[in-house]
Amino acid sequence: VDRAYPRSVRGLLKIARTLVALATLLCFVASKAHEAYAALAGMETVITVLFLLVYLLRLDRRMRCLFWPLADILNSVIAALFLLVVCLFAIIIRTNKGTLAGGVLGLILLVLCLADAVLLCKEISLNKARGRSAPAK
């Protein structure tokens, strides 16, 4: 278990994304909004928790078959696009206050997704060698 990850900027951002996605899901479910709204928020919650567990348990270092930061960036960008569309619809339609609150929280989640993607892009260097073939320092 990586005990430093939850205190890092990336870890705090993942935890914040998880909590905001869960709050968005609860708002959409409590307001009996369209199922697509709740499904998107639920999927984002589950996927973010899975990425949090991958990094927390250091599985990204054990399962080297996938470049995890790139998969995380793709998840963040795709989630941001879906959140933009769905949450704008939720805010525009606003059948009740719960749907409106879920839409606003979804837009906050969109900003967190984009911040996570930008942070990961800054940390990744595609020219840097990885694995056993990396030169010794």
Helices and strands: which structural class?
mainly alpha
Helical proportion, percent range: over 70%
Q: Tell me the fraction of residues in β-strands, as a range.
A: under 5%
Instruction: Work out the count of structural domains.
Output: 2
Sequence of secondary-structure elements: HHHHH
Poorly predicted tracts of residues: none
Number of helices: 5
Shape: elongated
Structure description:
Keywords: Membrane, Transmembrane, Transmembrane helix. The chain crosses the membrane at residues 12-31, 37-57, 69-93, 99-121. This is CKLF factor. The chain has 137 residues and is mostly helical. It has two domains: 1-65, no CATH class; 67-136. 74% of the residues lie in helices and 0% in strands. The chain has five helices and no strands. It has helices spanning 9-30, 35-56, 59-62, 68-93, 97-123. Helix 1 (9-30) runs antiparallel to helix 5 (97-123) and helix 2 (35-56) runs antiparallel to helix 4. The two termini are 26 Å apart. The relative contact order is 0.16. The mean pLDDT is 85.
